[in-house]
Specification:
Layout lengths: L1 E2 L4 E6 L5 E7 L3 E3 L6 E2 L2 E3 L4 E5 L5 H15 L3 E6 L4 E8 L2 E8 L4 E3 L7 E3 H5 L1 H5 L3
Parallel strand pairs: 2-6, 7-8
Antiparallel strand pairs: 1-4, 2-3, 4-7, 5-6, 8-9, 9-10, 11-12
């Protein structure tokens, strides 16, 4: 697991079959399961899971531009956290398109579709003491 600032260099296959860097993003949180994707500059290729935490200045970018980019790049699961609404939307890649796995706006478990051993509880993300601590 890596947190920003951490460069993720998303790639596409070039004309000769070699991987070419398409764009560089810095997700708020990402999980990279293949250690071979890591180098001294960050991650080359697609992380398994990306989490973006919305703010007023990034909301449109995270929910449209990055959503489309992560979907096209093959990020298996994308979580969008909205601190203001104390909610979270979870999307999983299915047949090259994101499908909504769930929306979470109240206390309860939040399971990771792609990494079943990873689960969070809504309270751990949105509990007032977490918010007060600036986390």
């Amino acid at each position: 697991m890596f947190v920003a600032p951490f460069d993720v260099r998303l790639t596409t296959a070039g004309a000769n079959g070699d991987q070419q860097i398409q764009t560089v993003v810095q997700p708020d949180i990402c999980v990279v399961c293949d250690a071979g994707q890591l180098d001294e500059r960050g991650c080359v290729g697609t992380p398994t899971l990306v989490v973006e935490i919305l703010s007023a200045s990034t909301m449109a970018y995270d929910t449209k531009v990055k959503f489309d980019l992560y979907e096209e790049s093959g990020v298996l699961e994308y979580w969008i956290v909205s601190p203001g609404k104390q909610g979270m939307a979870v999307y999983a890649l299915h047949e090259e398109r994101y499908q909504t796995v769930g929306s979470f706006y109240r206390p309860g478990p939040i399971a990771c579709h792609t990494l079943p051993e990873l689960a969070l509880d809504w309270v751990d993300i949105f509990h007032p003491s977490v918010k007060a601590a600036g986390v």
